[in-house]
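[audit] Reproducing an earlier prediction to check determinism. Same input, same settings, fresh worker. If the tokens differ from the archived copy the diff job will pick it up downstream; this log only records the rerun itself.
[audit] input (457 residues):
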Amino acid sequence: MTRLLAAVLLTSIALFAQTRPVYYLLWFDTEDYIDPASDDAALRLATTLEKMGLRATFKVVGEKARGLEKRNRLDVIKALSRHDIGYHTNYHSIPPAPAAYQRILHPLEAVEEFSRREEPGLRDVQRIFGILPSCYGQPGDSWGPAANVALRRWGVPVYMDDGGQVGLNGQPFWLGGMLYVFNLKGYTLRPDINHPETLQATNKKFDDMVASLRAKGGGVIQTYFHPTEFSSTEFWDAVNFLGGNYTPPGDYKMPRRRSPEPAENAYKTLFEFVRHIQSIPDVQIVTARELPLLFENPVQRPSASDARRQFQSSIDMQGPYSAADQLLALLGMEPQYVDGPVARGQTVVLGETLSRILFDRAKLDAVGYIETHRRLPHTVWAGSQRLSLPDFAATLAGDDGGPVVQIRKGVTAFERYVAADTDKNYGWVIHPKGFAAPELLEQARLQAWTLKPARLR
């Protein structure tokens, strides 16, 4: 009987491992509004994938959508509409790029400026395609955290793109109230459409990714392209806006076109790659619109006692809970989404302790700020003295309830998930030469109070 039970258990484990969810995303940054050949490329991609029974996500630039409308390309609009529609900025590469204007603004002003510049394009995409875009992604690596607040206002729930500014173990995560599919590291795979002979090796890499994710309990793999890659041998924006230069519409230059045979090979390579994915049991091909349904509700209540133990060692995420989630629990507040602070505070106190009366007042001050602004304060006041947010959190965690509260230094360990190298992470050819945005990475570290893994249901 023991051997039989063991055999049944091993079989069950094997079956469970095979059915752990692996999801695959195919998306296209549909952005080239200069070369009409890219319209035909988008049309062919959309219609062929539809015939194959696959829905992709087409992230459309506002000017691209308006151009399709002006050129009366209703065939392209209808074909893309049968897939999922995302958003990819209003003008993409016309300067200034999102990171360029956000980096010089106060974080709250950056939110309003992002909205001013980008919402008109979102609404045009929504009007032309008849649906609110499911996701957003920045142009190139021009990422900034101000987008998160605007996207939440617009009802766009997913941030889907690639970049190195922030990441969490190569899988989706929550940041700034958004579900991020971003910086998937070893789980982003693009077949080389210029070298079809490498496809078999690429298929093997995909199989290895699937096996790796199944061993970890499931996860997400993504592939992305641009329709213009199938019609041209160079990017439309590098021809016209290299280094942040501005080219007026009347002077636009066309990118070099692919010749017919290489173009056919490019399409064939992608479609054969997709057929391989479709042949793998239990790999589910999904769109950005389906993603929020696949992950657990991010607003959950952590244990205050667990948060206390965590914060006394370092301020970090714990399981599915962000540092912000845990801080709210320590303050006795209801679980909810809040933004991170907009700056780094400074601790200025007389001595190494606070009286019970002053610290209790500081806790009330923190709760009142959060309830009013829906974000964490960078400074918590205790009368005329003040604590930085990390020091307040660590002191709160170590509070034993006595008449005197020992002030503790808080260490924000979660900041390790944000990149330090600005040159590497903002090296897009459309940015001005030498462009860097350390201010945006600093804002990312502050918003990482909200960072936590996205867990599959």
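[audit] rerun output stored. Observation attached for the diff report: The chain has a mean pLDDT of 95.
[audit] end
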